[in-house]
Amino acid sequence: MTTRQRVLVVFCLALFPIIWVGADFLLAQYQALVTVKSSGPTLRWYKGNTHTHTLWSDGNDFPESVVRYYKDNGYNFLALTDHNVLSRGERWMAVSEVVNRRKTLGHPTMEKYRALFGSDWVETRKAEKDGAEEVRLKGLEEFRGMFEKKGEFLLIEGEEVTDYYKDGEHRHEVHINAVNLGEKISPQNGGSVQEVIANNLRMIREQEERLKRPILVHLNHPNFQWSIKPSEIANVIDQRFFEVYNGHPYINHLGREASEGVEAVPGDEQIWDIVNTIRIKDLKVPPLLGVATDDAHHYHGGESSPGRGWVMVHAKKLAAPDLIGAMRDGRFYASSGVTLALVHDDSDSLRVDIEPQEGATYVTEFFGTRKDSDPSKTGELLASYEDTQVIYYFSGDELFVRARVTSSLNHPNPSFEGQKQQAWTQPVGWKVHLPAPPETLAEKEPAAVTN
């Protein structure tokens, strides 16, 4: 048995007690996923990033400068998600600290800030305590109007709810992004990793229901500090989204091989397959959907830079409720560079069409888990094709099927050695393995996602 097979067996068998959070919410999400209308307004693609940091927490640039980058680089929406804070209220920061966060030579941060927005926009003062120069960080509502344009660019308020669980000397980092918040969420803590996840999700859902606004929630980088096991993710039933790719180079995207005294840990894609196998086969609940994000912190050099990962959402308009609704329906894919023209699934197949880049070739791999397969074959490679239009026909025994498209082109800003540009579709074919809620009687019609 290979190292990969051993780690898959360990993690598939290590089931934790199930934590049920928001059963009504889960039912509503299931119904959204099995009810697809064949008619309606024209949909279009929107490119967005749901994980971004600024000087409001541990980023190294002003929020306006960060937003400017994303708008100038073709994004349609952006969520600012600083750690345990919303970009609100009055916040002053020592200019020396702003300068010290810069990771490279070039235009100093303050000079760049003034050049972009003008000296009248930049507010500074002398600190009462020591006379040091301070600069005021602007809130989202102060600069939103500078960038937003109907149908073209949207800013969404968010937060990375940054929590942890300490098990002896090991601090397990539990970070959850909440996008489209109306109020700040404080870390809720808990007696285990699962409880920490569940407790924070519960508070987010409470706010969603109380304020009557949809909130996109995704679990971030489970391998950061080797913090979260697949079973701990799977058994929190209310969790619906997960970072299959995060552009920060220190989150251990590829996992690790076993070595003397160190156990093997699956990479993010393996974790995704393990989690979804547990959820569909054992728990009879919908799978997690996968997002790609930047998790950008550094805009003046540094390791965690922007432009590495994003989502492409197929929605009727550029508004937070529509974007979140489309993602809950599974009408999106994750990307680190590959553009898809069409993703189409029906009762017997999954089709993927690629928008080719000049000079690139593509390999599309279909992964899934079969109903009665050995745990070591969780997320096995089902088929592989080298073309820009490919289709996989279900054999009938797959719990789910997902596609990964890999380009021959290198990533222009890689987060790990040898990284190629990729795209990931959402898992499909799983609904037949779940008991349909009594309220859902209509048979699903084929759903197409086209460019």
Structure report:
There is one protein chain. The chain is an alpha+beta fold and 451 residues long. It is built from ten helices and 20 strands. The chain has an eleven-stranded mixed sheet, with helices on both faces. The chain has a four-stranded antiparallel sheet with strand order 17-14-13-20, with no helix packed on it. It has a three-stranded antiparallel sheet with strand order 3-5-4. Helix 3 (63-72) links the parallel strand 1 and strand 2.
Summarize the structure.
This protein is α+β, with helices and mostly antiparallel strands. 23% of the residues lie in helices and 28% in strands.
Keywords:
four-stranded antiparallel beta sheet; 2 domains; globular; TIM Barrel; disordered C terminus; single chain; eleven-stranded mixed beta sheet; 451 residues; 10 helices; alpha+beta
